[in-house]
Amino acid sequence: MARILITGGQGFIGRHVTEELVDHGHDVLVLDAMIEQVHGAERPLPPGGARLVEGDVRDAELLRSLLPGMDGVIHLAAEVGVGQSMYEIVRYVGANDLGTAVLLEALIDHPVRRVVVASSMSVYGEGRYARPDGSLVAEVRRRPADIRAGRWDPVDAGGAPLTALPTDEGKQPDLASIYALTKYVQERAVMIHAEAYGTEAVALRLFNVFGAGQALSNPYTGVLANFASRLANGQRPTIFEDGRQKRDFVHVRDVARAFRLAFEKPEAAGEVLNIGSGHAYSVTEVATLLAEEMGVPELTPEILGKFRAGDIRNCFADIGRARKLLGFEPRHRLEDSLGPFVDWVRGTVAEDRGADMRRHLEARGLVT
After folding, report:
1. Which one is catalytic: 179, 184, 220, 281?
2. Residue 81 within any structural domain of the chain
3. pTM of the full structure
4. Assigned domain for 296 exists
5. CATH assignment at residue 344
6. Residues of the chain scoring pLDDT < 70
7. Which end of the chain has fewer CB atoms < 10 Å from its terminal CB, N or C?
């Protein structure tokens, strides 16, 4: 048994991580700021009898009171959302990067054995691509002129089409949004601190996480939650670009298990690991599957044909390293898990705020 502090432990992922750790005999203390955009008005207790302290990870005095006696920290506390990060920059940098800095300073005086930090697939920017001859492309950026013309797929310097491949951890990060920048800073800060102070750190680059407990009324929480909120309110899901962009959707219970393994496995120390399903899905495919599962197949996706600043075209996970070092194997594929997800959605109040999100972005010139 280990004593573990989970920052952001009352969030969507945090509650599942808490349950996973408690079920495997660990003693968990949860720190969470309980932000209304994420939690609404509800104040449920943490699962499994874990203890809850309500507070901000940027409160250094509070952290110094919680860390003594801890064996580890799972650092989940963060503002989440590519679109919102592009105009609420101070909020994202403050919560994600300053919050991590305060935590790391507190750990100097109260060290723990291991810190596991939640990073994001967004740090990659575009995923891996190959040229027509099979050679890998080091860096892919879509050209503004192509985007304005509705040519969504990346091409090489000569205009030849590229093929999207599973993205491995060796792919060079390419930060396309403020959110991605803050997650990369979190990841690197934790790893640098651990090396300097002789402790252990693991960074998990999470792909698109879904499952029961998502904040359905938060339009920045994730694409599947956005679709579910729209469909539950009798509205068609809205999709940027042409809907053929590909993502990797990983179930939150698989993610929770990955965090436990990342804390427990000695082999994981010092590693950066992808946590995804290892499967690629087009965004339109996901919206269609969800509508069918919710019994409203007539609510077909509305394809906007517009580009949102900070978005990338394709990124899906190569999870070979997590398989090797953690023994991680996803157990909940998207197409087999939508039924339980829909059952949960039907018992939840979902306020559709997708139109508000689009208005905020368009008013700032972030949608073209």
Report:
1. 179
2. yes
3. 0.93
4. yes
5. 3.40.50.720
6. 36-41, 217, 219-220, 350, 352-354
7. N
